[in-house]
Amino acid sequence: MPKITYVEHNGKTHEVDAENGLSVMRAAIDHGVPGIDADCGGECSCATCHVIISADWMARVGKPHDDEESMLDLNPEREANSRLSCQIEVTNALDGLVVQLPEFQM
Question: Does residue 32 have a pLDDT over 90?
């Protein structure tokens, strides 16, 4: 199983074994990682699973699609490498992924 590390705004890390096919959001929720609210349950209709992807990982993770862009645009803390974790599918290619969690979910 791929390992994903979630880094809270305060620097605390949570490393989880994520099942292929799940979303990065679902892996966090299933392992009790704080900082991802996931209010819409992964339907890409809110931005409460916002994460920041390291520039080194953006090519593997990919860019947001149009619906995701619309949701991210509502977030004043959006960065160039922001993604909604509900829209990132866990695959073996993401083994070792590190995602930063914002201080607050909008």
Answer: yes
